[in-house]
Amino acid sequence: MAISLINVQALPLTSTSNIYHRHKNSIPTSIFPRKFPHRWPEIGVFTTKKPAIVNVASQGTSNSSPLTINKPPGGGTNIDKALEGRWREIHGENNWAGLLDPMDPLLRSELTRYGEMSQACYDAFDFDPYSKYCGSCKYPRDKLFVGLEMEYHGYEVTRYLYATSNVKLPNFFSQPKNPNVWSKTSNWIGFVAVSSDEMSKKLGRRDIVICWRGTVTRVEWVHDWMVFLKPITENGIPTSDPNVKVESGFADLYTDKDPSCRYSKFSVREQVLSEVKHQMEVHQDEEISITTTGHSLGSALATLSAFDIANTGLHIGRNGQPVPVSVFSFAGPRVGNMQFKDRLEGLGVKVLRVVNVRDVVPKTPGVILNENAMGLIKLTHAEARSYIHVGVELELDQKNSPYLKDTDDAGCCHDLEGYLHLLDGYHGKGQKFELATGRDIALVNKSCDFLKDEYLIPPAWQQERNKGMMRGEDGRWILAERPVLLDDHPDHTHDRLKQLGLAPDPQ
C-alpha cells in the first residue's frame, strides 16, 4: 500500500520523542479530515531534541523505513534568544500580565517543558505490585532522562526524592505484593535537577527544578487527603504567623520520615532543602532560578516546597538578593488558607496554576468556603479555616478541543497529558483551538481513554514490554532484575542540613 507525502502530513506527528508508535497498523487517511499543523512556530528551548520519527506501514508490512520529519532550521533559535532575555517575565516577574490572553508562545513552550518533566515522574514510576521494585523509579538517577528519551530537556538529575509510606494514604503509595520489595516503607516521589551548561546558556540562567510525582491512582486520593487545615508550625516549618495553615495530609507527607529506612531517614523536606542549599552553593557565582512543578498532589507539594524554600531564606544569593522562585502547577488542589496565601505571595513566590475547568481536583478542598466566597468568609471571620487558591490561574477547557471525547470521566479530565494537549491548542479566551506545535495527540491516550475513537489510538497504550517479564536462561519467564538501587542520599546531605540548623542525629 503506497502512502503519499500528502497523506503522511495528515497524520498526527509527534513533537516529543518519548512515545511508542504503532508501526504495523493500517491508518486510513480518510479519518483525518483535519490537517495537523507543521509550522513549528514554538520550538522554544527544544532545539537540542532529535527530529520526530514516524513509521508508516500497511498491514502485513513489517520493515518500512521510518520517515524523518525535520523542523525548519532556525525555528527555535530566535525563541532561544528571546528566552534568554525574557525568562524573568516568563517566570512571573509581572504575574504573567499580558501573557495568558492571548497566550504567549514562549510561555506555552516553557509550561510544556515543565509539564513534561512532571509527566516524567509518572512514566518512570514502577507501580507494578508484583515487582520487587514497586514504588521505586525504573531508572538510576543518571539514566532517568536517557531512559525516558528526554535528553533534549538538557537537565541533570542531582537527587531523587523519597517519602515514607508510614503515612497511611493507600491511594498515593503503591502497595507491593512481593515480600522482597526494595523498601517496605519508602516510595519514590520525584527528583531535583539542574540545567546543564549548554541548556543554561539557552535559558539565560542556571535553573534548579524540583519535580513532584502525583498519585498513580489519579483522582481517588482526594477522599483520603482532604482532612483538615493545621498550623504549618506543627510540622516543624517555622513562620511568624501561627495562623498560616495547610492541608494536614500535605504537611505530613512533606515532613514525615522513618529513621530506620535508608531512603526515608530524611524527610522529603530535608531532602529538598539540603539539595537546594547545595546547588545554591555550587552555582553561587551564576544567575539562578528555582522552579518547582508537579501535577495533582504533586502540584500541592510543589507549592508547599516553594513556600518553604523562600520562607527559610534559601533563595537569598551570596549578594544578598533573592533569586526568583516560581511554581508551575498542573491540576493542583488548594493547599492552605488565606494566611498561607498572603505569606507565600509576600515572600515573592510566583505561582501559575494551569487548570481544566472540568477537572474536580482544582475545586478541592474547600468546595464552599474558598476564594470565590470571600464575602461569606469575611462575614463569618473564617479566613484562617478556609482554603484559598494561590497565584494566577490559566483556565483551559477540554470542550474546546475537537480531538477529545465529550466525557466527564474524572480520570480523563484530570490527566496530565490531556492538560498538555489543551495547553498546546490554547491561544486565548474565545479563540479557535489549534495545536500550536503539532504535539502528538496520541500522547493523550497514554494512560486513559480520552481521544475520540476515530483517531484509532488505543486507550492506556503505554505499558512496559511484557510487564517487565523476560525469558531466563532455562527458558522460563521471570521478572527482569535491575541494577542495585544506590540513589538514596548524597554525602553532603547532613552537612547542608547542619548549615540550615536542621541536622538530625547521624544514622
UniProtKB/TrEMBL annotation:
Compartment annotation: Plastid, Chloroplast
Q: Where is the Fungal lipase-type domain?
A: 209-366
Annotated Gene Ontology MF terms? galactolipase activity; phospholipase A1 activity
- Annotated Pfam families: Lipase_3
> What Gene Ontology cellular-component terms does the record carry?
chloroplast
Q: What biological processes does GO assign it?
A: lipid catabolic process
Q: What keywords were assigned to this record?
A: Chloroplast, Hydrolase, Lipid degradation, Lipid metabolism, Plastid, Transit peptide
CDD domains, per database record: Lipase_3 (cd00519)
Instruction: Name the InterPro entries for this protein.
Output: AB_hydrolase_fold, Fungal_lipase-type
Its domain of life reads Eukaryota
Q: Which family does it belong to?
A: Belongs to the AB hydrolase superfamily. Lipase family.
Which protein, by its recorded name, is this?
Fungal lipase-type domain-containing protein
**Taxonomic lineage per UniProt?**
Eukaryota, Viridiplantae, Streptophyta, Embryophyta, Tracheophyta
